[in-house]
Every structure is written in structure tokens, then in C-alpha cells.
Amino acid sequence: MTYILAIDQGTTSTRSIIFDKNLRVVQSSQKEITQYFPKPGWVEHDPEEIFDTVIDTVKDVINKTGITVNEIVSIGITNQRETTIIWDALSGKTLSRAIVWQDRRTNEYCKELRSKSYEQFFQKKTGLLIDPYFSATKLKWLLDKYDPDREKSRKGELKFGTIDSFLIWKLSKGSSHVSDITNASRTMMFNIKDQDWDIEILNLLDIPVNILPEVKECADEFGTVSSDFLGTPIPINGVAGDQQAATIGQACFEKGMIKSTYGTGCFALMNTGNQIVYSKNKLLTTIAYKIEGELAFALEGSIFIAGAVVQWLRDSIKIIGEAREVGLLAKKAKDQKIYFVPAFTGLGAPYWDSEARGAIFGLLRDTGREEIALAALESIGFQTRDLLEAMRKDLLGLDIQKIKLRVDGGMTQSIETMQILADLSGVEINIPETQESTAKGVAWLAGMKQGLYSKKEDYSKDWKVMKTFSPNISSQEKEIKYSGWVDAVNKTRKSN
Q1: The pLDDT of residue 396
Q2: Do the two domains 3-243 and 251-432+464-496 of this chain adopt the same fold?
């Protein structure tokens, strides 16, 4: 038998999943990673801990499966994007904790860049807006602290990477310093038109090109896992940032198709084909994939807080004991006009307001756990509607009502949440037969490179819907609710 190993390194945990030659999940292993919050707005991970969780889950899933390592023909890696790491090229040791994509420490520098009218400069080249979210200003901050004169960087003695690059470097024992084009497109340093690192941006930020990885297609030769780890060398043939991997896994290969992933955050990507569409409504223009020379672009809307709002209910105010309880609690809510704007780390698309902070509006004397739980879940539906409206405005002629939104992520397991999502977004929600869309995407890439799997046209035909949710409230009620949401968001923004 032949198998593919997918490594899914996310914001809160690392997962390793074994797929068979038919792209069916055989077994999985998961391990949480520690979140560090050293200062308000700062979010960090320990890169060495991340690597250890990769090795632990890979060994565990192989043991659970009972297969031999020799039966794994290729490895795919998908990862939290934008999270930034630098390490010593000679020793392999990291210089600091990783700065996570949620981190806002470079907000003031981003403000400075915007005040100097660099917004269009960056958007034209990278498709992105100037924001602490992306890797570029994180990397500048790290270099300013650990290599202020840039001497080590210019000599190539330091290396930068998003999580994929770091893992490949470690797994290959320092022989491969590479990334894929989707992760590169999220750094705010990569020219999406030229498909290369942008020298003008690097000069502006004082980032030496020698520190950056080589950029490859999504299905490519990324390196080989050293036999020191698993007893035999295994090629790494598929890499994509988590949201692009989910786009591939959901078979969104045609222009106009949209997938939305509901994990810690929410990320909706619309395939725009080979056309670069620059958003006028604060969406991001990014690379969806490059497979066998075919390049596809996407419009992306990023919501910083989706599943994280449920974690907040559980861990911070403790109104639920487990995440799965939130849907049942919400079903018991009284009919109150409560709006929860979960701007814990600012607001993402289409607002991009790093100064906004979370707020709950409409509280009454008898408002309880149930009403707050419902408002938390509704915030996810409202934010999704925000993204779809922005896409509609950017792509004139797009009929929102005809959209069939392909969704994945942990929150899709909640029937209550998915129905709320359908009601408030106003679109049909399709949950795929295979829930592991992100891991499946890179497993398919890795297997395809090895000649195991068919081309994307055949893959699309095999994609199947497991469950559908249709809007269950009137258009009038939907619009009234959405109007209240818009008002709540505006109040949140005005208060800062």
C-alpha cells in the first residue's frame, strides 16, 4: 500500500494525517501548542515546540495506523500563514519566539507607512494592505532587534521563514530553504505579478534578500525529510498556506468559486482565475495556487476572530465548559437584539481597523449566557456577509444569492452555527464529504507530484457535498438583523 502524510500546522495545534491512495483519511494525530501573550496585542509561539509537535504527531499517527514508514511516498505541509520566524543558518537555532499572524506589535510602523502614502505602493505590488497581520513588518521588527546593522542577514547567516519554510529547513537538516508561492504571497514582500521577491519593498524595509527562501510552485520538490527523524528519507512534494490549501482541497478551481474556512479566524477566498483583481473594498488580492505552471489569483477576506470567540466564551468568561456546548446554549436564547463585535485584535476585512476593540451592544437586565452565546455565533454570520458584500462590489455581476459557499474548519461540526451562517449570510452552505479540506489539499498536491493522483479536473469531479444548509429566515428579517450589525460595528469603531 502507498500513503501520503499531511502535516497541518495551525494556530492552536499541530495535526498529522495519513491519507490512502484514494485520498481517504486513514488516521490522524493532534497536539496543542502553547500560546504566549507577553504584552497587550502581542501573540507568540515557540518554534521549537512547534517542530517537536510535528515530530510527535507524525510518529504517533504512523504508530496508530500500523503502516511502515516505507509505505509513505510523499509529504504535504500546510501551515498558519504570515507567522514569522528567523533563525541562525549555522546553528539552526531560532533567535526568538515566532511572531504570530494575530500579533499587532508593528501597528505604529504600519501607521507610519500609510501616513507616507505607501498603501497603493504595496497593494499594487503585493495585492495586500499595509497591516501588522503580514510578515514584512514582523520581520523588520525582528531584524531591528537581533541584527540592527543587517550584517548577518546580508551574509546569509540568518534565515527568515513562515512556518512551512522553518519546518522544511528543520526536517531536511538545513539543506532546503524554500517556500511555496501561496505563503510567499502573504508576506507583503512578494510581487504577485512578477512572481518574485520585490526589491523595492525589501530596500524600503531594509530587508536583505539573502534572508529569504526560494519560492516554488505548490506541487514541487521542496526537499527531503532526513532519515534521522523517521528512519528513511521521504520527499516533501506539496506545500500551501492553510487557506489556499483549503481552496485546493475544496476543488475551487473555477473562477467565481468561493470557500470559507472557520477555525480560529475565518478566511474566505474567491477564485478570480488568471486575472489580478485589485479590491476597492479592502479585500486582499492573493495567489490561490500555482500548479503545473497554471497560476490562479483570489480575492480574500480575513476575519480575525471566528472560532476564537467561542474559545473566549469558554476560557475567559467561562459560560461554557466545552466548545461544542455553544450551539445548544444559543438555541435557548430569548429574542433580544444583542450584537457582539469580537474585535479582540482589531477588525479585518473589509474594515481593516487595528484600533477597534471588542464590544457587546444591547444588553438587558435579563440577558444571560444564552443570549451572549447566540450573539457570538451570529457575529460569524454577519462577518461572512461583510466579506460576500465586498466581493459582490469588487466583481460586478456576482449574484450573491446564487453562491454555494463551500465551508470547512472545526466550526462546521456545529449544526446550529452552520444554520445561523446560512440565515445571516443569505447563501447556501455546502459541507464537503471529506472534512479535512486543508490537509487533503496538500495531500493531493504531494500525491499528484508523485503521479498517484489525477489532475485537478478529475479531482473536481470527485468532490462531493455531505450536508447542505439553506437560509431559513425571510429576506426582510435578514436585512433588519444585518443593519443592526453594521450599526454595532460603526459604534465599536467610533469608540476608539
Answers
A1: 60
A2: yes
Cell numbers found for residue 4: 501520503
- pLDDT over 60 (residue 318): yes
Query: Are 243 and 79 contacting, i.e. CB atoms less than 8 angstroms apart?
Result: no
Per-residue DSSP letter, 51: H
C-alpha cell, 474: 425571510
Contact 39, 155 (CB under 8 A): no
d(C-alpha 180, C-alpha 217), whole Å: 6
Q: Which amino acid is at 398?
A: L
Closest CA to 372 of 406, 404, 341, 418: 341
In angstroms, what is the C-alpha Rg of the chain?
22
- pLDDT tens profile 392-445: 888 766 666 677 899 988 888 888 999 999 999 989 999 998 778 899 999 999
- Three cell numbers at 148? 540592527
Confidence bin at 17 (pLDDT 50/70/90) = very high
Residue 352 has pLDDT above 90, yes or no: no
**Predicted confidence (pLDDT) per residue in 150-183, tens digit:** 999 999 899 999 999 999 999 999 999 999 999 9
C-alpha cell at 204: 524600503
Return the H-helix or E-strand segment holding 197: strand 196-197
- State the CATH architecture for 3-243: 2-Layer Sandwich (3.30)
Which element (helix H / strand E) includes 316? none
Q: Are 133 and 83 in contact (CB under 8 A)?
A: no
* pTM across the whole model: 0.87
According to CATH, what is the number of the domain 251-432+464-496?
3.30.420.40
Q: Give the residue among 178, 179, 168, 177 at the shortest CA–CA distance from 225.
A: 168
**Where in the chain are the domains?**
3-243, 251-432+464-496
Give the cell for residue 309: 470567540
Strand partners, 341: 359
Confidence of residue 496 (pLDDT cuts 50, 70, 90): very low
Under 8 Å between Cβ of 359 and 341: yes
- Say if residues 302 and 267 touch (Cβ distance below 8 Å): yes
C-alpha pair distances (Å), 118 with each of 24, 138, 204, 350, 376:
46, 17, 10, 19, 36
Helices (H) then strands (E): counts for the chain: 17, 23
Compute the distance between CA of residue 182 and CA of residue 163 in angstroms, rounded to an integer.
12
Quote the cell numbers at residue 73: 511516498
Nearest to 27 by CA among 71, 72, 63: 63
Strands 266-273 vs 258-262: parallel, antiparallel or unpaired:
antiparallel
Q: Which of 9, 109, 99, 115 is nearest to 53 (CA)?
A: 9
CA distance 361 to 85: 38
